[in-house]
Amino acid sequence: MEIRRIIGIVIGLTFASLLITQQSAISAGMMTRTFSFLSDDILPDIWVVDPQVKYIDDLRPMRDTEYLRVRD
């Protein structure tokens, strides 16, 4: 009876550590995805986007007049 209890504790701790590691990896991956678009493109001194953009994957092209105004 005592050996079953020890095996159960070891299996439970192993499963818990697996879940903790998996969730922390998912969190780290989401954080990397969130700021990677800024860290990958380090050339511009200023970042210009449409004021209506709310999410990282929301791509809206700029009009030519806005692009030329910012470029000069």
Structure description:
The protein is an all-alpha fold. Helix content is 65%, strand content 0%. It has 2 helices and no strands. The protein is rod-shaped, with a radius of gyration of 24 Å.
- Helix content class: 55-70%
Spatial gap, N to C terminus: 79 Å
Number of helices: 2
Beta-strand segment tally:
0
What count of domains describes the coordinates?
1
Order of helices and strands: HH
User: Major beta sheet, specifics?
Assistant: none
Q: Show unreliable segments.
A: none
Q: Whole-number average pLDDT? A: 82
Structural class: mainly alpha
Beta-strand proportion: under 5%
Radius of gyration: 24 Å
User: Quick one: overall form?
Assistant: rod-shaped
List descriptors.
72 residues; 2 helices; 65% helix; rod-shaped
